[in-house]
Amino acid sequence: MEQGIAHGGNLGEARRRFPTAPEPWLDLSTGINPFAYPLPGFPPEALTRLPEPDAVARLEALLARRTGALPEEVVAAPGTQILLPWIARLLPPGRARIPGPTYAEHARAATLAGHALTDGPAEMLTLVNPNNPDGRLLARAEVLSLARDHALTVVDEAFMEAAPADESVAGQVGSGGLVVLRSFGKFHGLAGVRLGFAIAPAPLAARLRASLGPWAVSGPALFAGLAALGDEDWPAAMRRRLREEAAALDAVLAAGGCEVLGGTSLFRLARVPDGTHDRLARAGILTRRFAFWPDRLRFGLPPDAAARARLAAALA
To answer: Which of 15, 41, 171, 243 lies 20 to 30 Å from 96, alpha-carbon distance?
Structure first.
């Protein structure tokens, strides 16, 4: 595991802990779409040439069009994870408030930037919306109201494209201290591409772009992003499919004695009977557990009917 923070998707650790589990493992520990965007073949130039600035600009313009932002407000990066400490450094060290439980990397990044974590008044506020892992969704008006009370407000919208309603503030960063994060890999099912975006007022976007330096986004990531973000039909069809798949997963969980508490159409949080995580792991099924919620697990979407049946059998 990564030092101090556990994340989903660590099959190597799962195999070490459960060496007799059947292969292949069914990894339900992440919120990554198992129905990935169908990329065409990579052209050789994606690997042999340095990424072109014009291609980066086209990619940022496509994300701007999808979110309602301005192109100059969008910064492409090799995943949103790498942006977290840079964004936290937009303010001098002070106080940071991160309502939780939520994605733990935000607290780590704020601490790395010298901020002290607090539950009280703070200069920096971080909101994960929809929240990971419970799917709590704050209304756009509430987010904007909270942002007015802080010098820097970071809104992580990694799962917004799979939310039950669009409450994004990506198109409203304006000229203040609002920064929005958008993931590419989760909704498009291409997490290994390592591509993400910050959307910020133009002066803050320029600072982030300068911090990342040239060629921050790889040629393959540019190719994947331009193809997927340029496809205007795929997102709506995928959202419908994800809603159907999430409903099917809910039925399996309920039949297996689990109580679905929340989530998005990419993951479900459920209260489970004691020992469920290890019982599933011994059956070669990895789920996401939490030290702060020992009675709850997060389940990603099974990739097909056979995987749902395997989960149902292990829960029965």
So the answer is: 171
